[in-house]
Amino acid sequence: MLLRLGPTPYGLATTLLLLLALPQGAPTCPMLCTCYFSPPTVSCQANNFSSVPRVLPSNAQRLFLQNNLIGTLRAGMFGPSLVTLWLYSNNISSIQPGTFRHLPALEELDLGDNRNLRTLDPDTFRGLERLQSLHLYRCQLSSLPSTIFRSLYSLQYLYLQENNLLCLQDDLFVDLANLSHLFLHGNKIWQLSENVFRGLSGLDRLLLHQNRLHSIPNWAFHDLGKLTILYLFNNSLSSLSGDTLADLTSLEFLRLNNNPWACDCRAHSLWAWFQRTRVSTSDVVCASPAERKGRDMRYLNEAVFQGCPPVSHHPVQLDWGCRPEWENGATRSHSHPHPRPRPHPHPHPHPHPNGSSNHLYGLGGSPPADPSSFYRDVPANDIRSSKYDPPTEDDYWAGYGNEEGGQLKKGCPGSSCSSLDSGAIRIGFLLLPFSWLLMLWGLTWF
């Protein structure tokens, strides 16, 4: 029996059912996208879109636009109700000022893996005071404006890994008192400014491995009293002051391997720090002098340092200025080449504990990056702690995109659909404009 939409009992009943299925005032779902009712979600990933859809439901809280070909972001593209916005793995090369300014509820913004994104305006993220997770990994950023992260008081996770960053300047993160994770690995950073980490009083993990660091200022870690994990492996460090590490009173895991360590008098301070700490550390293999090459600095005999000057507790007088390209040749005063850190100039106006619902390894990961890349260089016995259990790749993906009991799925069939899928609207099925239904009904009269 052929079922027709029209003035037959079967057609009329079907039409009424379709109309009843539409909620009152249901917003329009963009073509080729999938929409969900609770929470209001629009999923448009992997559709080869070259721009953000012009018509989006104004009440959408989650918008997934990853794996498209979007090139430019402009003001007015996104609705004010957004909480989660994924734009990773696109072709974004330009983000115009004001694009995110009127998104007061935004908590997670993923712009990662946009390999034509080379510069950011200083006001790009202005107004996002509720933002908790910001993803800028695997772009082509070589420098960052000094005020790019100002007023992001709620930020807890900042992903800057695998860019082309060369230098980090004073007070770059000064407003981020709630930041717990800072990922800077896989860049080309050769220099840290003396007060680059000032204000990061809540930081738990700092990843600086796989850069080009040849030295670290003595006061660089002055504010990092809560840091538990520090990775400095695969750099160009030949020496590191023990006084620099002494500020890290909560440190549990330290990796210094694969650096050209000089095990002469320059190592005295670091060796002395190793003798009085119980921090879990990697091997610290000597590269020089020749008679100590291949030995582990941590286990050298104290006699090695006989004749060395006493361990100094005073900072080395060096110029740690950082001159990014956008400053157009501005110079740094050398009258005080090594200032002590100043008090935090912007005390956090609304201090609160790190309690984000967007867990680092659940919603808010960094696909399409390898989810285990954070740990792939860690030996199996390198991390052992009752409070720190590294997640597996399965753990990572099990929670990714999963909130409030409903996992986002595309084309979920039958009874296996989650609760979130049961409220889905797909273009071409239930979300037909009312006028289309009337037209189909009317055609059956002819």
From TrEMBL:
Predominant localisation class: membrane
Stored InterPro entries: Cys-rich_flank_reg_C (IPR000483), Leu-rich_rpt (IPR001611), Leu-rich_rpt_typical-subtyp (IPR003591), LRR_dom_sf (IPR032675), LRR_TM_domain-containing (IPR050541)
UniProt membrane topology term: Lipid-anchor
Region (Disordered): 329-400
Keyword tags: Cell membrane, Cell projection, Glycoprotein, Leucine-rich repeat, Lipoprotein, Membrane, Receptor, Repeat, Signal, Transmembrane, Transmembrane helix
Keyword Lipoprotein: yes
Subcellular location: Cell membrane; Cell projection; Membrane raft; Membrane
One MF annotation (Gene Ontology) recorded for this entry: signaling receptor activity
Signal peptide boundaries: 1-28
Protein name: Reticulon 4 receptor like 2
Segments traversing the membrane: 423-443
Pfam families (UniProt xref): LRR_8 (PF13855)
